[in-house]
Structures are given as C-alpha cells and as structure tokens.
Design brief:
The chain is 32% helix and 30% strand. With 206 residues, the protein is of the alpha+beta class. It has a domain at 27-154: Nuclear Transport Factor 2, Chain: A (Roll), CATH 3.10.450.50. A 6-stranded mixed beta sheet has the order 2-1-6-5-4-3. The protein starts with a helix and ends in a 23-residue tail after the last helix.
Length: 206
C-alpha cells in the first residue's frame, strides 16, 4: 500500500505537468502541425500526414466508396503516391481551431497551385477540409480527416480526364499525380474538374 502511495506521489506532479503542457498548446500549434504535413505533401511525401495520424484514424475523400478505417489502411492508400505529387504553393484559407478538452477541430479551405512549363501558375485543387485532432499518449494526433471539393462542377463528357477526375474515382490532387506518373504528363496538367469562380493565383506565399 505504501508503495502504491509513493508511486502516486511521484507520478502525480509529472501527470500534472504533462496536462499543463498540453493545455498550453493553442490553435497556432495545431495549424502549424497541419501546415508541416501539407508542406511535405506538396513535395511528394505523404508520410508527413501519416506520422501525425492516430492508429484508429478514419478518413473520407471523394474518391472513396466508403470510410477508410485505421492507420494501416491509410498507409496503403497514401504511400503509393510518394514522389508523384508536386504542389508549388498552397493557400490555407481561414483556418479555425475549436478546442474542447483533449479534442481540437481544425477546419479550413485549401487551394493548391502548380506552375506550368511556361511559367504560368494555376490553381489545380480546391478543397474543404476538416481535421479532428485528439491527445493520444501525450501527443496531438489526427483521429478523423474529411476532404471534399469546393462547389464541384461537372466537366463535359468530351473532357479526356473526366473518367478519373470527375467520376469520383480519384480526387483532384490524385488525378494530377496519377496522370503525371502514368502518362508522362507534367503534374498539374488540366486533368481536373472545373470549379466555378476560380480565382487567379495570389502573389503571397502560403
């Protein structure tokens, strides 16, 4: 009994210190984690996301027939994309973090840009994103991730990329990566479903 009490006395301050450390994590730190993962994603490295996902992560995007369950399934989904993605810059628009205890909900819009061989920058993907973070073993981890198109617009049937991009088989960023890898076309070629009201690229960095 004394041993149990002694252990509790020793561990009590440590647990309190850890809790205080997590309490000190604000919205900026959560957003910074997401940005770091996006930076690696744009360089063709999906492990930036995989490394901050919990083992029981769940995931939705327009290319999936159903929810993706678990870190192993996410690795099977994303690892094959290594080296096939190139995003020159992105805008994370209006990120907001709503924190309730050990759970934080991050929402934002994402616009990704690529540069053509002629030096013309264009938006190649526009997303709504919801990322749910939770404290697991003292670290913030993504436990649910949901990506959807911003007001998608169907492209005419004659569009040569319709079967892959607009059918829902591949989300926009995967369409660009797949065409780059399989057909030799430069990533960012116009194999994307158009969205209404596309804006010209801004000069500011992400």
């Amino acid at each position: 009994m004394r041993g149990v009490m002694f252990t509790a006395i020793l561990l009590g301050p440590l647990a309190l210190a850890c809790q205080r450390s997590m309490d000190s994590v604000g919205p900026d730190q959560i957003i910074a984690m997401e940005r770091a993962a996006l930076d690696r994603w744009g360089r063709g490295d999906p492990r930036g996301y995989l490394e901050i996902m919990g083992s029981e992560v769940t995931y939705f995007d327009p290319s999936q027939d159903k929810r993706v369950d678990g870190l192993g399934a996410m690795e099977a989904l994303l690892v094959p994309l290594t080296g096939t993605i190139k995003i020159d810059r992105y805008e994370m628009i209006d990120p907001a973090v709503q924190r309730h205890g050990d759970v934080a909900l991050l929402t934002f819009n994402l616009v990704s840009y690529q540069m053509s061989p002629e030096g013309v920058e264009s938006a190649v993907a526009r997303w709504n994103s919801t990322e749910t973070y939770a404290v697991i073993d003292g670290r913030w981890r993504i436990i649910h991730s949901h990506w959807s198109y911003i007001r998608p617009e169907f492209v005419p049937e004659e569009d040569h990329c319709l079967p892959q991009a607009a059918s829902g088989r591949l989300p926009q960023w995967r369409c660009a990566a797949r065409h780059s890898a399989q057909s030799g076309r430069e990533a960012g070629s116009p194999c994307l479903p158009r969205t209404p009201g596309q804006r010209p690229a801004r000069d500011s960095n992400s």
